[in-house]
Amino acid sequence: MFLQAVLFDMDGLLVDTEPLWFEVETAVMARLGGHWSHEDQGKLVGGSLQATLDYLIGKATHPIPRETLARWMLDGMIARLRGSAVTPRPGAVELLAEVKAAGVPYALVTSSERLIMEAVFEATGLSFPVTVCAEDVTRIKPDPEPYLLGTKLLAADPGCSIVLEDSPNGVASAEAAGCRVVAVPNVVPVPAAPGRVVVPSLADLSLARLRAIVAEAG
Known about the structure:
Order of helices and strands: EHHHHHEHEHEHEEH
Shape: globular
Radius of gyration: 17 Å
CATH superfamily of the largest domain: HAD superfamily/HAD-like
Strand content: 5-15%
Helix content: 40-55%
CATH architecture of the largest domain: 3-Layer(aba) Sandwich
Distance between the termini: 5 Å
């Protein structure tokens, strides 16, 4: 068993965008006549825009067309990404650079819309040779489809691929795809489990450790 690919989540893992999402959700919920809390946000971490829209509509006092609500969410988030000092989380740039320098195939797999992904790239300078976003799949995390597509695009065996995730939804998706998972919890806790590695920060990881995780699993 040897490491064939590394797949990274985006929101909450590479970049700490969750506070920005909370700002947008709070503002949109106020326009809908309701209140937004961190408990509400926690239920949506690692999910899709469509799931967020469903949840917002369910809490709304003043419902609006779904397309309008989606535009409020996307416009609000893109404005914040462009107007805030968005930086990669500790250890993200270093780990990406190490993986790239070693020639290990790598990809970004996110439940966010492509517009959001591109705005994050623009704000941080991050880039990936292979990406999977919400528009690329029919079922988003926690379904395994996103990571099955990511490993397929990298021509990698899921069992020899490491996924780095911060949310329970993302971890469930990667594990269902048969990937090795390293969880780096952010907004929502991710418990330890057999075959799952949990670390406090990407700064605690190195390519050597990722290789060892795959080798030990074999």
